[in-house]
Structure formats: structure tokens, C-alpha cells
Amino acid sequence: MSCEEISETWTSRPCRLNTADFFDDLGQEPCAFLYGDGAQARWILLGEEPLRVLEDVGGPLPRFTRSGDLPPVFPDLVGFVAYEGACYPAHLPPHAPRPFPFPDCHLAVYRRLRLYDRNAGTLYEARRQGPEPLPREGCPDPGAGFRARKVWDSDTPRGYREKVERIREEIARGNVYQVNLTRQERWAFRGDLRLFARRLFDLNPAPFSAYLRGGPFTVVSSSPERFFRVGAGRILASPIKGTAPRGDLPAEDALLRRNLLASPKERAELAMITDLMRNDLTRVCRVPSVRVEAFPRLESYANVHHLVADISGEMVPGPTLDGLLAALFPGGSVTGCPKFTAMQLIRELEGHPRMVYTGTLGWCSHDLSQADFSIAIRTAWASPEDLLFGVGGGIVWDSNPEAEYQETVHKGSSLTRCLCS
Fold first, then answer.
1. Residue 254 is inside which H or E element, if any?
2. 346: alpha, beta or left? (left if phi > 0; alpha if psi -120 to 50)
3. What is the Cα–Cα distance from 393 to 270, expressed in whole angstroms?
4. Which of 8, 49, 170, 225 is catalytic?
5. Alpha carbons 233 and 228: distance in angstroms, whole number
6. What values do phi and psi take at 284, rounded to 5?
7. For the chain, percent helix, then strand, then coil, each to nearest 5?
8. What pLDDT is recorded for position 245?
9. Pick the catalytic residue: 48, 49, 241, 314?
10. If we measure between CA atoms, which residue out of 211, 159, 206, 212 comes closest to residue 184?
């Protein structure tokens, strides 16, 4: 993408909309639909008709000229960067071939953008123009309904437990302190992925729910985890570490919450990643502005409880997208610490590319003065016929291999229930 000028005109009107209204209007053409739920999710965003696509975070970003009734935020580019995308260490050996073509970076400028402010009950709509539009991609009719069957798992329960033990051996040798180990499942499907996305949102509404269609590929995410948010000169990171299943009864659920908050193991996991993220933020923030805002706090979802920390800092002026990602990417909660040593062990043990899973998904303004990106967990990615998703967790010295495997089952249960429906 050359450094070019995009002009946009905004209009606004008061109205009352919800996520279902946008799903009902969602077509088959390439788009980006961000529709998170909860206190962190003020905006519903739908971009249609891609005008430009950034395929390399190091490329120049377009400039924008704006007119009309402007919104408070400017999602100029919307999309994702895969785990193997920005700043992936060149010295690591290559992964096995990808199961189907999939980009490392897909950040698009959309010709039509709808932005709904839940708080104010206001719909903002933008129309954009640039030098030359992208050709329209044809998308085949997926047919009615949605059905899927599991065809492959990257790890047996025993195999995953053995990998946990291997990580514990590396921790005992002092080579690493924590490693995020993941596994993948592959499902064959027929039908409309919009139905799968809607099922997932109904079952497990999450702050960073997303449906992104790029023509030959689709991403469906129900992530609870913010990677970073930029606004008013500050950056906020909110890593998740520490997970417990939900209880069937209120008393059981309350006990699981209390036990998670009191767990020395889970708090230690979160403390290590909080320290890692604090160090990463110092690379893009004024010193000594970086501080821990909350540690720990509890977030609860349909299937699990999570421990979360908040770390923030005052950003150095004039950030660039490649510079920001070089400092922070991949997120510490999905690698481990030390980060690059953990990534080396991940590459050795996992064997399959993570692709968008544990990468980042969201939006930013062209000048990086505003941004909001999630960690792409609870996330599936698909070709026209095959769908994959990943699940995992942080392994530390006192991890129990069987419990770690069961944690991946709990984390993946919202996805598998929607696939099996």
C-alpha cells in the first residue's frame, strides 16, 4: 500500500440497534464485523467493501481527510496480524506448511463503515474514497444451515500431557519460567459461517467478538482478552492468566471464583506475565509512567472465570504500527517468559503454525493515536471447507499435566458446542 490519501464523509443519527440487527444485515462479501459484549465493548463496527488491504505492518499507512459529523473514534484500519506475522523471530525454524492459504497480516480500509455507539444510541456512517478500489471478490453461496464434524486433533490427551512435562523439565533447568502451550482441532464443515458466529455470540458473548471475511478465508472470534488499547496519549494492556471452569450451581460457582482468586499458582502465572508486559510497555512509553492499574481482577464468562491484570503507560509521541508491534508482539500471555525463549520451545513442541490464533485482531487510526486490539483466543479460522481453532494455557513448574489438558477442554467448549449444534 502506498502512502495515499483517503477521503471520508461521516453522517450520524440517533437510533437503537443491537448485535442481531447487524447480523441480520450481514452479507456474503468481504467485511469486518466487531461486535463485542459487556462493559468494555462500547462500539459495534461493520466495515464493508475493502478499499485497501495492508499485508505488511511495515508498509506506509494511508492518510485520512475527514468531514461531516465525526465520531469520537476512527477505526481507519480493521483486521488482524497472525502470530507468525509481525516481528516473528527470523532465527526460529519454519513451521509445517499451512493447511490452506492464510495471510500473516490483513488490515483493511473499508469503503463503507458503520459505527454504532451503544452508550449514546448513535449510528455513525462513513463513505470513503481513494485512488483505485480493489476488485470485488466473488463469494460462493454457502447454502443453508451449518454443520461440522471433527477430523483432526494436533495432540492426544497423553501427547499434550507429555509436552507439559517437557516444559516442566525446561523450567527445572532454569531455561524458562512459563510457556503457553496450545493445541489445535480441525473440523470439516458445510454451510454458512455467519450462523456459526451468531451461535457463538449467543452462547458465549465476549468483549472482543468478531467476524472477518476476506474472500477465501474467514475468522470468527469470541475473545475475552484485550491486547492493548491506545487513546488520549496512553496505552493499556490487560493480559489474562489464570482460569477456572464455571460451576453448575451458584454456590459451586462462587467457590470456584474464590479459589481462583486465592490460588498461588494462578496468581504467580499472572504476576510473571504482568511483569513481562510492564517491561514491554516501557519500550513505547515514557519512563517512569508505566504502572500496574489492577492486579488481579476477576472476569467471568459463560464457561470459565479468568484472572486479569491492567497495566498502562503514557505513550512516547509518534508511534508507528511496526514499532508498536515490535515492542509488544506477540502478547506475553500467549508466549510465556522469557518471551523469546518460550517462543523457541513453543515452535519445537507445537509443530503447526498458529496463524491468526494468539495473534491480534482489532482496529487502529492511521496515526496510531487510537487503537483497540484483542488477543485472538477463542478464535476459529476457516477456508471454504475446513475450520481450525486453538486452545491452550500457561505452563509453570507446579502445573498438573492432566489439569492443564482439561483446562484446554474447558476453554474450547464454547466453540465445540457451537460446532456440534
1. helix 250-262
2. alpha
3. 12
4. 225
5. 13
6. -125, 5
7. 25, 35, 35
8. 86
9. 241
10. 159
Nearest to 410 by CA among 288, 243, 250, 259: 243
Residue type, 145: G
- Total residues found in the chain within this entry: 421
CB 71 within 8 A of CB 82: no
Residue 45 C-alpha from the chain's centroid:
15
Q: Report CA 140 to chain centroid distance, whole Å.
A: 27
pLDDT tens digit sequence for 301-348: 877 899 999 999 999 998 999 999 999 999 999 999 999 999 999 999
Which domains occur in the chain, in start order? 5-134+148-420 (3.60.120.10)
What are residue 160's phi and psi, to 5 degrees?
Answer: -65, -40
Cα separation of 6 and 244, whole Å? Answer: 46
Residues 75-103 pLDDT 10s: 999 999 999 987 666 667 667 788 888 99
- Residue spans of beta strands (DSSP E) within 177-316: 178-191, 208-213, 218-223, 226-231, 234-237, 240-245, 291-300, 304-314
Cβ neighbours for 288, distance < 8 A, ≥ 6 positions apart: none
- Closest by Cα among 366, 285, 362 to 321: 366
Count each helix (H run) and each strand (E run) in the chain, helices first. Answer: 8, 21
C-alpha cell at 366: 492511521
Clarify whether 299 is annotated catalytic. no
Q: Which of 336, 351, 356 is nearest to 92 (CA)?
A: 351
- Residues 6+ positions from 263 with CB-CB distance below 8 Å: 242
150 is catalytic: no
CB distance 292 to 262 below 8 Å: no
Look up residue 40 and give its amino acid.
Answer: Q
Tell me the pLDDT tens digit for each residue of 154-185.
999 999 999 999 999 999 999 999 999 999 99
E strands within 224-326? 226-231, 234-237, 240-245, 291-300, 304-314
Torsion sign (Cα): 289, 295, 299, 303: positive
